Q: What sequence folds into this?
């Protein structure tokens, strides 16, 4: 039984997928059955006259034509079916006339619009009444009326009910298909959203890693490049005729080389810390390579300020210590980038670096006009963008630009100090 049901379901699915082909087969089957009834059935029973059976091929052709067009033009198909019934009765009547009626009313009820279905229902009621009254008139017998009513229901009522039932099933199936398509579309949209979110996460992570690599590598290596170039530019002590000058040249070169070594060691430590963070996974938006975020760490920038004069104005250590670790890390990174940019682009300038913890956190770096260093290194020009991103991560802003003969970088993070210290 289960195998038989599966076969029926497959056949139904096959027919639903090929509606035009299915209707063509149905129309051909209707024509074949009508011809068989014409051959074996009675003809001329309405008028009682002798007529040729083959003249009834005309109403059969009309009924077949109506069946072929019942899906595309149900109204015209219903009219052709009624025309086939009328022509068959005018010719004297044949046994196939019942099939014209059944197919016409079924087509109108299954494929027609609301107005056509109402017309078909009304005509079916009229047909059932005429059938009941017509069979009861000759003898006035109640049994004839009942038999006529049952016959009318079978001929007119059954195709209307059957067509309505098939139409409802088709509508339910169409709604199911629409719902399934909506679910598929929703699934595709969810997949697209997930892909976009993954892409955004990857881009965000790449931007975060780029910022860290810029802070960890670029600034340190720039200081190393500038310091090593400066050391190469210092004359050899052997070339000095004055012992005092030779001693000063030696001390100057040693100082520069010590700065280079310190920058190299710091760069290595920063790289190890960054690699450790990346290997650990789950890097948060404020995770970074470990650096000294205390005020002492900011003061240590003076050692990296090779070739410039750095003036620091820092807040009370206790107030600064109450800031969150991510915020202090951002402040230390921005301060280091300000100093590194001054070293690279304004050799010999005076840089005033001030950190104020008033109502808002404000970090200002103001430098005087410097000179282009002969030991300058290429710059990618992303330092200001990285500093701005760090400030915006805490809801702050960064303004950078010329200030008279110098340059100013002004970072403001509103409300963070008050929030962190309460």
A:
């Amino acid at each position: 039984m289960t195998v038989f049901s599966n076969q029926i379901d497959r056949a139904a699915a096959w027919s639903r997928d090929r509606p035009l082909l299915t209707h063509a087969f149905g129309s051909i089957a209707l024509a074949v059955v009508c011809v068989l009834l014409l051959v074996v059935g009675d003809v001329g029973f309405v008028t009682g006259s002798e007529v040729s059976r083959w003249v009834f091929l005309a109403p059969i052709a009309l009924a077949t034509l109506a069946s072929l067009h019942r899906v595309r033009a149900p109204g015209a198909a219903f009219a052709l079916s009624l025309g086939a019934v009328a022509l068959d009765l005018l010719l004297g009547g044949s046994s196939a006339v019942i099939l014209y009626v059944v197919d016409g009313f079924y087509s109108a009820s299954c494929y027609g619009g609301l107005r056509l279905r109402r017309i078909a229902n009304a005509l079916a009621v009229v047909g059932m009444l005429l059938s009941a009254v017509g069979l009861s008139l000759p003898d006035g017998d109640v049994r004839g009326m009942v038999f006529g009513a049952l016959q009318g229901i079978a001929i007119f009522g059954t195709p209307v009910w059957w067509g309505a039932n098939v139409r409802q099933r088709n509508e339910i199936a169409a709604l199911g298909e629409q719902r399934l398509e909506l679910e598929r579309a929703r699934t595709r949209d969810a997949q697209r959203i997930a892909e976009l979110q993954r892409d955004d996460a990857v881009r965000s992570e790449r931007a975060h890693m780029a910022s860290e690599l810029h802070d960890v590598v670029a600034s340190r290596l720039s200081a190393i490049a500038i310091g090593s170039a400066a050391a190469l530019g210092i004359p050899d002590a052997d070339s000095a005729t004055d012992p005092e000058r030779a001693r000063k040249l030696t001390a100057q070169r040693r100082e520069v080389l010590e700065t280079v070594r310190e920058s190299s060691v710091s760069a290595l430590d920063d790289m190890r810390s960054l690699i450790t963070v990346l290997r650990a996974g789950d890097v948060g938006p404020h995770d970074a390579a470990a650096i000294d975020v205390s005020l002492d760490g900011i003061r240590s920038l003076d050692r990296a300020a090779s070739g410039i004069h750095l003036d620091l104005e820092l807040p009370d250590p206790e107030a600064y210590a109450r800031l969150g670790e991510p915020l202090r890390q951002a402040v230390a990174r921005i301060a280091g980038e300000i100093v590194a940019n001054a070293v690279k682009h304004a050799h010999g300038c005076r840089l005033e670096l001030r950190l104020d913890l008033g109502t808002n956190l404000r970090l200002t770096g103001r430098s005087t006009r410097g000179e282009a260093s002969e030991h300058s290194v290429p710059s990618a020009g992303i330092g200001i963008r990285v500093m701005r991103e760090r400030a915006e991560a805490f809801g702050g802003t960064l303004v950078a630009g010329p200030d008279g003969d110098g340059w100013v970088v002004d970072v403001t993070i509103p409300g963070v100090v008050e929030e962190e210290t309460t």
